[in-house]
## 1
Amino acid sequence: MSSPGSARIPQHVAIIMDGNGRWARQRGLPRLEGHRRGVEAVRTAMNAAREIGIRYITLYAFSVENWKRPADEVGGLMGLLEYYLRQELATFVRDGVRFRTIGRTDHMPAGVRQLLRETEAATRHFTAWHFILALNYGARSEVADAARAYAAAVAAGTEQLTDSSWEQFSRYLYTADLPDPDLIIRTSGETRLSNFLLLQGAYAEFVFTPVLWPDFGKADLQAAVDEYGRRERRYGLTAEQIKSGAQ
Ligand code: IPE
Ligand code: IPE
Ligand code: MG
């Protein structure tokens, strides 16, 4: 956890990758071509994050609401995901990147689930770099899942209601082992969260950029990090308290 006002480089950056469809439409291409180019941008962002020194990067790849898209687009996205995971496993291992997911991944197609398991298992021991893919993710579903698991633990006697606190409850979220995001970026000019990390982002800084996701490169990530570095995170304190180093 970063302390108030500190750290120029965010430890954890989360990105809402948006604008693949518009990128394709502007070029008269099918939406899936935009998603294909989006995968290239994922590779670029991952490398850029390590070069900048960002230890945790979370990418919102598929929301619980995205199932409502046309079946051929959903099918195309699942195919791309499989292709990406197959290609990337060796890169994660080479670069020492731990891969994890957040979301209801048990509802993903069997082929994707198998690849997710393999990739997670092969990278489990890495500690320096962390890559988290939000798949079939929705913050409200996450809270519902966590509340169910918490209630079951209370019923089983492993949790005491008298100890109820955010620290205790947050251990039941998908992000239990992850630090909160310091910076949340959304591309494509939209300025909404679309059900992404609503609780974990309680004290995140936000950067919204008009760049469409397939065009998002290292310079754009660096610009967002620079903007983050100019912000003062106060966590409820006054600016004077931050200057005098009060916690
Ligand atoms: C983001 O791009 C990728 C996913 C949500 C899977 P979009 O597909 O939402 O692109 P736009 O918003 O239609 O341009
Ligand atoms: C959010 O983008 C989800 C992902 C980036 C995976 P959407 O394009 O689905 O969000 P809305 O529908 O514009 O809010
Ligand atoms: Mg969109």
## 2
Amino acid sequence: MKILVTGGAGFIGSAVIRHIIDHTEHSVCNVDKLTYAGNLESLASVSDNERYCFRRVDICNRAALAEVFHEFRPDVLMHLAAESHVDRSIDGPAAFIETNIVGTYNLLEVAREYWNKLGEPNKSTFRFHHISTDEVYGDLHDTSSLFTEATPYAPSSPYSASKASSDHLVRAWKRTYGLPTLITNCSNNYGPYHFPEKLIPLIILNALQGKPLPVYGKGDQVRDWLYVEDHARALYQVLTCGQVGETYNVGGHNEKKNIDVVKTLCSILDELKPLASNTAACAAMRASGLEGKAYEELISYVKDRPGHDQRYAIDASKIERELGWKPDETFESGIRKTVQWYLDNPSWVERIKSGAYQSWLDKQYGDGSQA
Ligand code: NAD
Ligand code: DAU
């Protein structure tokens, strides 16, 4: 198959592309605008593969998108391009409306035009797989209920409202025009190559530098964590075996309070990178009046996120029952691997922090006029 992936330079998209190139014979065209969250260095292990190509295109640019379809002639499409960070959506919602709603609309229209002209059997086997989030369901306030595929939508943030809108557009394009769509709604991902604005990489990297570990509110909100490579396998399973028009929830059965996640990260770091061997962090902590004996000393409770969702928890029984998918990693195994990955890959992190990867992009791809 020829698989068009949007947002393939992001955290999950890059895991999906690495999975496809490493474990299948399919070809991938990665369409990405390369915003601050897009990093081609996350694809270094596959970028020389002859089954991989990259096009720097903004999904809001319909003409450029149509050209990619014309040139690559995809058999199927996986749509991951999005603005993805809730706090940024609160600060500035415009980009979220533009990319997540208008961009998805553009992609649906370009895909529909392309699909309409396909002959059989390609027309019947074409898939538009839209990758979405459990945040469209809003939040849960008790400790036992779970989000199912039938849970009514009730998004809370500009980010989740924009993702909910895009899900509605995708369903409408299936019902009205017959476009063969699939939707997945997944819980919080974590793992290698995660941009350090999100909780888990932020805590690991701040701790390693002896900086405060910001915990919003009381830290009692609950998230359901899934290792990113398990998500990539689930997406491939849905793409290849999912029923057209269906939605599948994806989750890891790993509900954790934020404060417990932060404390777990601190204790893994105490073991893998003790403060006694991290003189810079230790000195920074002592300068702030801390003892510098354990990373937990750095925990700092800060102002809560406006409209902060209390609890997310996914019922993933449909994808498990119908498509035979299950996560391989427990939270305990996945979080340890993740911490180890950040310890083993300081140059990936350094180049993000210094902005070097962005300067490289500018040099490699010019002023971005193609996007
Ligand atoms: P990310 O922010 O790491 O990556 C997004 C990618 O999209 C980046 O490479 C960026 O350059 C690209 N992009 C942004 N705007 C674009 C545009 N206009 N045109 C083309 N490319 C553009 O996001 P992620 O965490 O990898 O999430 C990927 C998808 O999965 C998103 O749709 C998100 O809503 C969804 N999702 C994420 C999670 C999670 O925990 N991270 C969980 C469930 C669902
Ligand atoms: O549930 C899926 C969603 O998970 C995805 O759709 C989003 O794209 C993804 O960003 C993620 O959203 P969250 O808001 O849950 O993730 P984040 O890592 O930003 O925050 C996780 C929790 O930790 C959340 O309750 C807020 C809290 N938090 C976050 C940060 C960045 C803190 O307490 N301190 C922080 O500094």
